[in-house]
Amino acid sequence: xxxxxxxxxxxxxxxxxxxxxxxxxxxxxxxxxxxxxxxxxxxxxxxxxxxxxxxxxxxxxxxxxxxxxxxxxxxxxxxxxxxxxxxxxxxxxxxxxxxxxxxxxxxxxxxxxxxxxxxxxxxxxxxxxxxxxxxxxxxxxxxxxxxxxxxxxxxxxxxxxxxxxxxxxxxxxxxxxxxxxxxxxxxxxxxxxxxxxxxxxxxxxxxxxxxxxxxxxxxxxxxxxxxxxxxxxxxxxxxxxxxxxxxxxxxxxxxxxxxxxxxxxxxxxxxxxxxxxxxxxxxxxxxxxxxxxxxxxxxxxxxxxxxxxxxxxxxxxxxxxxxxxxxxxxxxxxxxxxxxxxxxxxxxxxxxxxxxxxxxxxxxxxxxxxxxxxxxxxxxxxxxxxxxxxxxxxxxxxxxxxxxxxxxxxxxxxxxxxxxxxxxxxxxxxxxxxxxxxxxxxxxxxxxxxxxxxxxxxxxxxxxxxxxxxxxxxxxxxxxxxxxxxxxxxxxxxxxxxxxxxxxxxxxxxxxxxxxxxxxxxxxxxxxxxxxxxxxxxxxxxxxxxxxxxxxxxxxxxxxxxxxxxxxxxxxxxxxxxxxxxxxxxxxxxxxxxxxxxxxxxxxxxxxxxxxxxxxxxxxxxxxxxxxxxxxxxxxxxxxxxxxxxxxxxxxxxxxxxxxxxxxxxxxxxxxxxxxxxxxxxxxxxxxxxxxxxxxxxxxxxxxxxxxxxxxxxxxxxxxxxxxxxxxxxxxxxxxxxxxxxxxxxxxxxxxxxxxxxxxxxxxxxxxxxxxxxxxxxxxxxxxxxxxxxxxxxxxxxxxxxxxxxxxxxx
Length: 811
What we know:
It comes from Duganella radicis. 58% of the residues lie in helices and 7% in strands.
């Protein structure tokens, strides 16, 4: 047995026969003394879960993206049957390049398109609305009193006289600005959707629906017809169709990671194993998700890459440890066991912190985020087996390149050589001294203070019109812009619901309150218009009195108000006249607009509680957005408190030192604050798509600190100075922290060129977090350690069979 020792006093043993196979902890003995069984079980698991992974589906659900337990959404679901499809819906605008829509050919195309959309799976057909549906009606004052009919009458035959009649019907229908553009060059097909396909009972397939809509667009667009589509389902359909491009960026990120890792190791076999084990983790994750009945959606599609990135980070640490031991002359099997001893506890703690960071997201009462938490937690749990166990065992069989192993010790054997890495280590070592350490801490404090002041301007919800998940120049957002420019009735609708006793919805007292609230809301910035039974009743009074606008008022006449009910459209009240809907059309769905309207309605409800009617928030797309913003705002700080609380507990259990916990956690706090400031600078709001990243940054970032701190603390316990301990940490784990931090940041930074703005934003935030967490572990952590950690008296060197040394002593 060679008498040299490794950096943690583990003996260098060149022959496997000289090693005590029964040494080490119980998990180590169980795994490494039965290596063939471990490999076989992992192979079987990979085959089974790989087969299951082929069954994993990609879809989205409207109801999963909203907080179903929030009072607003509870009210919406309780009255959903009375709301005429005012939830998940798409709008198809059919525009003509001709003189107007009152053209025989245009109306024929509109009719055919209307009929094909009507038959699409998942359409809530009774509430679908266009010029060709029977629920689009007109009303007018005639010499004989009020008259009315469908806009497209049964006698329509395409003649000039019939077209003139259609134009007259449209002008008196009240649909100008809603179903028909003010310039008469386009009209809308309003398509409310069910969340499940009534034929199959399965969730509505937004990808298939989006493809069918695009087929219809391609079929009917042209020859003077332009088609524009907006709505949640179309956004999800576009995101699902763009997943192939997302996968291409993932492939590019994987290639970057592989190339840089090989450039660092110059060892093909170990690079392939690290990448392969990280990919196996993703395959296992997909298989387990399929077995558990989960589906991937556009919000969780980025999680597999995060799992791969975390796996690359941990795998590179294991590979680096084995490579250094082999370079010293240790047998590859023994090197794998030494690395398992040193880094298993630190790696396990880091992965548990990652898992907690993901799992805490389940506290947010929005199912799409809870599903994301489950998807990510499963992926991190899998990494414990693939990267902490399987990878060292595979490396114990295959080993590493001898040249690569010798190269890994170059800095250690010649610490004074003016190589770039050695120079960098010397610069980083300055932060273990009082002056640079104090400067680093003060700079971090200044950045945190400035970042906190900026983060106070962080908004909740969407900050841009249209779909912020997509680029501003995407086809969807161009279509949405067309809708906003040509229609007064915005797609951003907030619906106030009013419940009354049976057959009492047209009482004067109730309608007067609805009218008063309508007037108050119309005075608010961001509110374009309102519509309600109260407004219709006032117009009816005008009609009853020969069109004289002096009668545009509510009158306390029960018979007159009740008579309006017989001709009113059903989207304003229900069959039993026990429900009213007040539609508030908003300019946009920005957070400040929604907050302003919701606050006004809440104040009105508080002042006008009565025994006969009950005002409730909220339905409509904007109402659901408002409820989502409220839940996200409440959950944001609570989520961070839980994440940090769990990380602090796990770090304390691992290190048994509050000083070490401070060194590990404070850099994460700085990164979180600066990340929020960056979101303000980039014009990003906190919403369903971005909220998880804030929590994920904490869980992922602690990995770097734990690997560096575990070595520092272990070396301090052996009596090293902080400078020597930190230098050892840089040689052993710090170099890989630097490597993975820079590599992963470069990989996700390529997402900036993604056509999906959501992915581009996530790439910027993740790249920022990777870099700042790396800097925190390599700069701020040793600076904090200078003031908080002290070396202890040296102890006797460990023998070959002793437990882990480059892990906390209690492990």
